[in-house]
Amino acid sequence: MSTPLKSQLDRRTVLSGVLFGSGIAASMIDLFIFHLALQWHHFYDLSTTEVALTIDGFFHAFGWFITVWGLFLLADVRRRTEVHWVRWTGAVLAGVGFFQLFDGVVFHKLLGIHQIRYGVDLFVYDLTWIGSAVMLLMFGLLMLRRTRPARLRA
Amino acid sequence: MRHQEQHLDGLTGIAPADPLVWAALDVVLVLILVLAAVGHAAGLRAARRRSPWPLHRSILFYLGLLCAAAALLGPVASAAHSSFTAHMLGHLLLGMISPLLLARSAPVTLALRALPVQAARVLSRVLRSPGARVLTHPVVAGTLNAGGLWLLYATDLLQVMHVSPVAYTLVHLHIFVVGYVFSASLVGVDPDPHRASMALRSTVLVLFIAAHSILAKWLYAHPPEGAADGDARAGAQLMYYGGDAADVALLVLLFTGWYSANGPRSGQTVRPGGR
Question: What number is the ipTM of this complex?
Fold first, then answer.
């Protein structure tokens, strides 16, 4: 079994996890937890500029795209070799953390598309959101680092 | 008749059409749907000496017809004249779900099997013509699809459509035909001599999903004239989430095609023993 193939499949495992993690953070976590379960988010708070609304639409579309893409990459790795699940999970966590951080900083704060919750002091919520995102990202990256394939280690 | 003219009269300045015209339109629709249903069965019969036609393709075809019928006739269609939410449900059925089901039922393949050789050759020549190539290109189909939506909801077309049978027919024909060509260009199962690359089809689909969701949120903030606020918002959310469901189905089918076309060849797998 050639090493280039193994490292290609390893890259594909990581890519699959990162895409799926970022994708579910963009499309599902937001929808199911914040819109439907907690009902903190509104469908559209009507205060958004049209530019921000447009950017939001593109991210929404891209979020679904990478969710499905990530899952099909995983299926593809699975039919070629045995999936390293711990490594994939690390990539998913890193992906979720990365997107939540991006969402919290760029969407909530810089673009102001929507806020985490309305009618409350946002500082605590922003701190929790961004803090948990950074922790997830670090934890995911640590898992990725610890599961690096032996032969690929420099 | 089924269209509600009282609150629309003042908006468009177009004299409402004779109820008989609307009734005639329904009759024509029923005829077309029955013709399509019988046509499929006749196609199966004509092609019965060929390899068996997969049952699931026929089921997809009839489900597709059923969705189109549900959108155009019956309770959804009559409610659509006064309720924006019902209009949107009909639109989802006619413009996304029915075309997707029909595109996955391989109607062209069945036609090519069932038609006499001469007619099949003509059909295949038409499908390979430059005109068909342009129209079935994902970029063109996607632009016509999303552009038609914006035209319908961001102009007065929606009001005109409820009063004028000609506009009503053209809008619904456009929604259905473009919806079909769009689905077929992305995830069709009929032979496509000019199938666009995976990268291009993915890009078009992502842009389409974006246009669809932006329009839904825009509609939420800018209710169409003649629709009550609550009704318009419910309709916009139905467009957003219903559109998402159909879009995710398109994404899954797009990647299913990629998945089956890119199976591992020998030497491209690593089994546990080889680690």
Answer: 0.86
